[in-house]
Design a protein that fits this description.
Elements (H helix, E strand, L loop, with lengths): L1 E5 L9 H15 L3 E7 L20 E5 L1 E4 L2 E7 L3 H11 L3 E4 L4 H12 L4 E4 L4 H7 L3 H15 L4 E4 L2 H9 L5 E3 L16 H7 L5 E6 L8 H15 L4 E6 L5 H7 L4 E5 L7 H7 L2 E4 L8 H8 L4 E3 L3 H4 L8 E3 L5 H13 L1 H16 L3 H20 L12
Parallel strand pairs: 1-2, 1-6, 2-3, 6-7, 7-8, 8-9, 10-11, 10-13, 11-12, 13-14, 14-15
Antiparallel strand pairs: 4-5
Helix pairs in contact: 2-3, 4-5, 8-13, 11-14
């Protein structure tokens, strides 16, 4: 069985889409699939870039499309519309199925090529672009972007998305052939057992209570609320009792560094397989203020590492954060409430331990291997339908 992934973001760039796509590629190869990937070409030195890792990473053939830096966000690349290269890959590979993991240049042209060669197409919906448009001051474009996103997914045999909230957003775009999939975490990689006293010394946190943020440093993540909350906390407890560690990079980094109080450590991007697991487990709590997540993968990784989570119960995060059971819920943008939650975890050890245990239990019910088994089965059912001629393309009554 063969699958071609078409994606507008991939390794060495690290974000939620690339993480899920790479996990899917490795998992499918392990389950007997031949996998090829069409992705943007990255320069040798991309801010925050990491090479592919894992035993199966080199087994997927990657075809790179020339790209240019995205405006206002140079870490991201915009692929050039090289339609004939994309079509040529799909024609030569003769896949049983094409998975368009993104909706833009490579994803959309991959869908066109798959339709041209009568290959069933599935898609992923990872990003709530309406919310992103609002955050970046482009709200007037949100309706048009959403109509375009809906038109792409309505052409798919199936759309995979990681939360019921995201399924609801797709339904409002008249996309109905949707499967909630991908809300898993690698329990072999993220574990409380990776806690390291040596790393605490290296980071300079030693006995200080350590809050952790992992993710892009971009406006849609609202990292500023986490930093303001931490600054308020330090005003109450003094300079040495707590530290905030931030792992990630992005267009907001300079501004966030300027506003961060003493006791904040910026680490940049870390390798998610060799460095992040130890960092998660070595912290004491996880703080996250984003309201734009369709999943919130970093929240699940923190929970799998045994960290109580302070977060906004919106979107995909809200489907896993349970106030008083595995973390503390705060209103969006409310640095005062987040600061109070930080203080509560620092001073109430019994509550902290109970929430940490609840976070671990939540994550342990969401192992990634079962999600990969579901993806494998879904692909095979779709391929069987296509081979039997039961449905060469989905009905387009909502287009």
């Amino acid at each position: 069985m063969r699958v071609v992934y078409c994606t507008d973001t991939y390794l060495p760039q690290v974000n939620g889409v690339t993480v899920v796509t790479e996990l899917s590629v490795r998992g499918l190869i392990a389950r007997g699939w031949e996998v090829e990937v069409i992705a943007p070409r990255y320069p040798q030195q991309v801010p925050g870039a990491r090479p592919p890792r894992g035993a199966n990473a080199a087994l997927a053939r990657v075809h790179s499309i020339p790209s240019v830096p995205a405006p206002r966000y140079p870490e991201l690349r915009v692929a050039l519309p090289d339609v004939w290269t994309i079509a040529g890959v799909i024609k030569r590979a003769r896949p049983d199925i094409v998975h368009c993991a993104t909706e833009f240049v490579i994803g959309r042209l991959g869908m066109w090529a798959a339709e041209r060669y009568r290959v069933p197409v599935v898609t992923s919906y990872h990003t709530n672009f309406r919310q992103y448009a609002d955050v970046y001051g482009l709200g007037r474009l949100a309706g048009g972007v959403e109509r375009y996103i809906g038109s792409v997914h309505r052409r798919a045999w199936r759309t995979f998305t990681p939360s019921e909230v995201a399924r609801g957003a797709l339904a409002r775009m008249q996309v109905h052939n949707v499967e909630v999939w991908g809300r898993g975490v690698d329990l072999n990689l993220f574990s409380p057992a990776r806690r390291s006293a040596t790393l605490r010394t290296t980071l300079g946190v030693r006995s200080a209570f350590t809050y952790l943020y992992v993710g892009r440093l971009a406006p849609e993540k609202d990292v500023g609320t986490v930093i303001r909350a931490f600054a308020k906390l330090r005003e109450q407890i003094g300079p040495d009792a707590a530290q905030l560690v931030i792992a990630g990079s992005g267009p907001d980094e300079i501004r966030l560094r300027q506003m961060a109080p003493t006791g904040t450590v910026f680490l940049g991007n870390l390798d998610r397989t060799t460095e992040l697991p130890e960092l998660y487990a070595t912290a004491d709590a996880f703080a996250f203020a984003s309201t734009t997540e369709t999943l919130g993968l970093v929240v699940l990784e923190a929970m799998a590492s045994g960290l109580p989570v302070i977060a906004v119960p919106v979107g995909g995060v809200g489907e896993h954060l349970r106030h008083g059971e595995n973390g503390i819920a705060c209103p969006a943008g409310d640095a005062d409430a987040m600061s109070r939650a930080m203080l509560h975890l620092l001073t109430e050890s019994e509550c902290r331990d109970r929430l940490a245990a609840g976070a671990l239990a939540t994550a342990q019910a969401l192992g990634w291997e079962s999600e990969l088994d579901r993806l494998d089965s879904a692909y095979r059912r779709i391929c069987a339908d296509a081979a039997a001629g039961r449905e060469l393309r989905p009905p387009l009554r909502h287009s």
